[in-house]
Amino acid sequence: MNTLLVNHLNPKYGHRAVCPHPPFLSSNFLLLFKRWPSYTEPQNLTSVSEFFLMGLSDDPELQPFLCVLFLSMYLVTVLGNLLIILAITSDPHLHTPMYFFLSNLSLADISLVSTMVPKVIVNIQTHIRVISYSSCLTQMSVFIFFACLDSMLLTVMAYDRFVAICHPLHYMVIMNQHTCCSSILVSFFVSLLDSQLHNLIVLQVACFKGMEISNFFCDPSQVLKLACSDPLINNIVMYFVGTIYGFLPISGIFFSYYKIISSILKVPSSGGRYKAFSTCGSHLTVVCLFYGTGLSVYLTSAISQSPRKYTAASVMYAVVTPMLNPFIYSLRNKDIKSALCRLLSKAG
């Protein structure tokens, strides 16, 4: 049966309904109808004012649970990382390069989850998953900035551990205040450049073939999948930029730990080796968690055809990892635990 596609947008998802034409319509009328502008064609960029975000579930009974879950994770993330920052700034014993970088990592984690989770909670509460085009670009840019900043800070912290273990006598000379501040500034500007490059790639998209983003936030890879044009060039540029900004930090971390392990293996006593490696155990755990969940997001996107699985993997990477970082550092680091106890005793 012949059908006419009518531009009927579902307010929740933006899907178009397929409506069969009634049998009494004449062929002349259908011919005239076909000459009218087709609103089922991909929407021009000038007409796209908003996107629809896909949630974790469409079940109405699960929405209160999801709201409480995201709110709990957000509060734990903010309070946990804020306690780490307060403990480091209030304890003079922790005014060292390693804890200086850790406080900046905690600040970046707070900012990372704050770009997404409040919007998710509001969407669940209002039952509206709409985000404007400009807000989507802003959220995407800010998310990439802080995600890249996390990666850069983990690389700088790996270098800090490399200097501390492999060159202990020159540690304070190499990791001086100027070096620490310069490392933070370089990480900041590299992350800013990365976010703007991704933003520029998305801005080149002239039209979109749909308006539903298969994630709970404005994921740049999912936004590009909505492009009408051949996504090959955009994907090549996107993956090239991602490879450069992902390969360099990972290479720096691998090189640092290669030198660290080689140096530790030269220590004659097992106690000395354990003591030396314990100073970077927390950092190594966070690195594995950060890049492990990031790899799971990539593999889920490449292998699985289920958008829900991809969304769940994104939650692990973007929300759960920043929430776990304070626990990893506080449970495995005696200095942080002592500083937190002193901070809490002062507050009490």
TrEMBL record:
<dbReference type="InterPro" id="IPR000276">
    <property type="entry name" value="GPCR_Rhodpsn"/>
</dbReference>
<dbReference type="InterPro" id="IPR017452">
    <property type="entry name" value="GPCR_Rhodpsn_7TM"/>
</dbReference>
<feature type="transmembrane region" description="Helical">
    <location>
        <begin position="171"/>
        <end position="193"/>
    </location>
</feature>
<keyword id="KW-0472">Membrane</keyword>
<keyword id="KW-0807">Transducer</keyword>
<dbReference type="GO" id="GO:0004984">
    <property type="term" value="F:olfactory receptor activity"/>
</dbReference>
<feature type="transmembrane region" description="Helical">
    <location>
        <begin position="62"/>
        <end position="86"/>
    </location>
</feature>
<keyword id="KW-0812">Transmembrane</keyword>
<dbReference type="InterPro" id="IPR000725">
    <property type="entry name" value="Olfact_rcpt"/>
</dbReference>
<keyword id="KW-0716">Sensory transduction</keyword>
<feature type="transmembrane region" description="Helical">
    <location>
        <begin position="276"/>
        <end position="298"/>
    </location>
</feature>
<feature type="transmembrane region" description="Helical">
    <location>
        <begin position="137"/>
        <end position="159"/>
    </location>
</feature>
<dbReference type="GO" id="GO:0005886">
    <property type="term" value="C:plasma membrane"/>
</dbReference>
<keyword id="KW-1003">Cell membrane</keyword>
<keyword id="KW-0552">Olfaction</keyword>
<keyword id="KW-1133">Transmembrane helix</keyword>
<keyword id="KW-0297">G-protein coupled receptor</keyword>
<keyword id="KW-0675">Receptor</keyword>
<feature type="transmembrane region" description="Helical">
    <location>
        <begin position="310"/>
        <end position="329"/>
    </location>
</feature>
<dbReference type="Pfam" id="PF13853">
    <property type="entry name" value="7tm_4"/>
</dbReference>
<feature type="domain" description="G-protein coupled receptors family 1 profile">
    <location>
        <begin position="80"/>
        <end position="329"/>
    </location>
</feature>
<feature type="transmembrane region" description="Helical">
    <location>
        <begin position="98"/>
        <end position="117"/>
    </location>
</feature>
<comment type="similarity">
    <text>Belongs to the G-protein coupled receptor 1 family.</text>
</comment>
<comment type="function">
    <text>Putative odorant or sperm cell receptor.</text>
</comment>
<dbReference type="GO" id="GO:0004930">
    <property type="term" value="F:G protein-coupled receptor activity"/>
</dbReference>
<protein>
    <recommendedName>
        <fullName>Olfactory receptor</fullName>
    </recommendedName>
</protein>
<feature type="transmembrane region" description="Helical">
    <location>
        <begin position="236"/>
        <end position="255"/>
    </location>
</feature>
